[in-house]
Automatic annotation (TrEMBL):
InterPro entries reported for this sequence: ATPase_AAA-3, CbbQ/NirQ/NorQ/GpvN, ChlI/MoxR_AAA_lid, P-loop_NTPase
Name of the protein this chain belongs to: MoxR-like ATPase
Superkingdom per UniProt: Bacteria
Keyword Nucleotide-binding in record: yes
Keywords tagged on the record: ATP-binding, Nucleotide-binding
Family per record: Belongs to the MoxR family.
Domain ChlI/MoxR AAA lid: 252-322
Stretches assigned to the ATPase AAA-3 domain: 46-179
GO terms for MF: ATP binding; ATP hydrolysis activity
């Protein structure tokens, strides 16, 4: 690796360290969640934040918009939300001379950071309005393709599926999220700090650390980071081992997994492990990064069989078992 490349990676790491410090002013604890969302953004992707209400998901996204200097908009997803409420629509206007013409009014999706709040409370028809935008950064309205601003990222929040009034996200849309970030309840000490910090007169403010151009520069840096053959092999091993119809699939996978992750999971892991190394100030990712990010990159891209669910199995447990079997030091030595 050249000296210029090392300097570029180190500079990006320092910028991200400042961003993390600013975010920590408003989001107490949840450092793993913050790092995973930052990971998704500098990887050039979208993130799905899953957790019960009141765990600072919305606050985190709002803070990210400020710290990253991005034009951010928020859409509250509800059962009566329509696709046009997100994408925009053409309206017929009459000019002073009496001439009539159609004018396109942009929806909130025309921004750099879209917060889709409680995305699973909208109907599947409305959820699908985001599919083209998330993959192609383009929306089609009234037969015309309209390009979205750059960069463009969606950070969606989701309440657990078992809560009343929610709709499961389609598999095709779940696959558009580079990472699923599970937001858990804070520790006792973090919750104490939250209570004291948010119930006083003043609320903490975060300051911008970078702008959209800086974020795009860091995204290019992530793509230029080297990944060794051992890391590539580990990614392919763990993704392919999670497919029940893969030749030589383990009996536990055949028994417990209904459908496994596709190539996008391997692509997501490759980007995410590089981004994790950058965030942590390292020059290259390791196999340990693959293990650490296997759940966020794969769990929303696979599903359990009915029998596995009935027995109390979880996707997390299956992924952990696959990682232990495929990427443990013992298995590597045997290979």
């Amino acid at each position: 690796m050249s000296a210029d490349a090392v300097a570029e990676i180190e500079a990006a790491g320092e910028t991200l360290a400042r961003a993390r410090d600013e975010i920590a002013k408003r989001v107490i604890g949840q450092q793993t969640v913050v790092d995973l969302v930052l990971n998704a953004l500098i990887s050039g992707g979208h993130a799905l934040l899953v957790g019960a209400p009141g765990l600072a998901k919305t606050r985190l996204v709002e803070t990210l918009g400020v710290v990253l200097g991005m034009n951010a908009k928020r859409v509250q997803f509800t059962p009566d939300l329509m696709p046009a409420d997100i994408l925009g629509a053409e309206v017929l206007e009459e000019g002073r001379d009496g001439a009539r013409d159609f004018r396109f009014i942009e929806g909130p999706i025309f921004c750099q950071l879209l917060m889709a709040d409680e995305i699973n409370r909208a109907s599947p028809r409305t959820q699908s309005a985001l599919l083209q935008a998330m993959q192609e950064k383009v929306v089609t309205v009234a037969g015309a393709n309209r390009r979205l601003p750059h960069p463009f990222h969606v950070l969606a929040t989701q309440n657990p599926i078992e809560q009343e009034g929610t709709y499961p996200l389609p598999e095709a849309q779940l696959d558009r999220f580079i990472l699923q970030v599970d937001v858990d309840y804070p520790s006792l000490e973090d919750e104490r700090r939250i209570v004291l910090a948010t119930t006083g007169v003043d609320d903490a403010h975060a300051e911008p650390v970078m702008g959209p151009g800086d974020l795009e520069g860091i995204q290019k840096t992530v793509r230029r980071m080297p990944a060794g053959e051992t890391v590539v092999d580990a990614i392919l091993k763990i993704v392919r081992a999670a497919r029940p119809d893969e030749p030589g699939a383990h009996d536990a996978v055949k028994r417990n997994v209904a459908w496994g992750p596709g190539p996008r999971a391997a692509q997501a892991l490759m980007m995410a492990v590089r981004a994790k190394a950058l965030i942590e100030g390292r020059l290259a990712p390791s196999v340990a990064d693959v293990v650490a990010l296997a759940r966020p990159a794969m769990k929303h891209r696979m599903a359990l069989t009915f029998a596995a669910k009935a027995e109390g199995g979880t996707v997390d447990a299956v992924i952990d078992e696959i990682a232990a079997r495929e990427l443990s030091p013992a298995s590597a030595a045997a290979a």
